[in-house]
């Protein structure tokens, strides 16, 4: 005899709607300043499509903003800001882009990428 599994369509619909409500209601907060010579003190709520905070340093200036994690790469940032020599980092919790940049610069990232590709080929 087969066991019948009772499926609750209303329960499924309710759980999907609840999940969407919970995850859509949270929006990230990031520091937001353009071309600032010092650390940023202004913050803003990101758009629902922006899931990452960005800090970028070029010369003596810094830009702080909301960003998309899928575009947090050297090439995407260079293209968007029309820059060649810069440092940046992305993070994904509220106001995480306030500290000074000590993480990634374009040259180091490029060298690390090439080394990783060579290692994978061997």
UniProtKB/TrEMBL annotation:
Annotated GO CC locations: side of membrane
Key words, A-Z: Disulfide bond, Glycoprotein, GPI-anchor, Lipoprotein, Membrane, Signal
Pfam families, sorted: CD59
Source organism (scientific name): Accipiter nisus (Eurasian sparrowhawk)
Main location as per UniProt: membrane
UniProt GO BP: cell differentiation
Subcellular location: Membrane
Annotated signal peptide: 1-23
Topology of this chain in the membrane: Lipid-anchor; GPI-anchor
Oligomer status and interactors: Interacts with T-cell surface antigen CD2.
Protein name: CD59 glycoprotein
Signal recorded as keyword: yes
